[in-house]
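Quick one:
INPUT:
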């Protein structure tokens, strides 16, 4: 009789039910995902903050995904350098820009290589 192989369960990330604008965050993402209860695709803003000694996830429903057609997904790392409000402002700016000049935004022209 064949044996059933069960994979180790993946770690479950804690949930943050509330974030404040001045608290430091690890990252901010914006993605389209299926809403709970299969009510269609929605765009979610996901903010990673510290709760205790672990990273926790805060999700904000931004509405139907079709409202955000043509807007790219966002992934803004912060590593506790920026607050929640600062990351949300950066996301607003990036979302409003139709075409982002990555060289300018990352300041690659100013970078000195060895």
């Amino acid at each position: 009789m064949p044996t059933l192989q069960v994979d180790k369960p993946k770690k479950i990330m804690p949930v943050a039910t509330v974030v404040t604008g001045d608290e430091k965050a690890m990252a901010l993402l914006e993605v389209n995902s299926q809403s709970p209860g299969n009510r269609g695709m929605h765009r979610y803003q996901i903010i990673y903050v510290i709760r205790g000694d672990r990273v926790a996830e805060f999700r904000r429903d931004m509405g139907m995904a079709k409202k955000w057609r043509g807007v790219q997904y966002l992934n803004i790392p912060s590593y506790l350098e920026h607050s929640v409000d600062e990351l949300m402002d950066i996301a607003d700016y990036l979302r409003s820009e139709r075409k982002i000049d990555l060289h300018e935004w990352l300041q690659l022209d100013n970078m000195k290589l060895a």
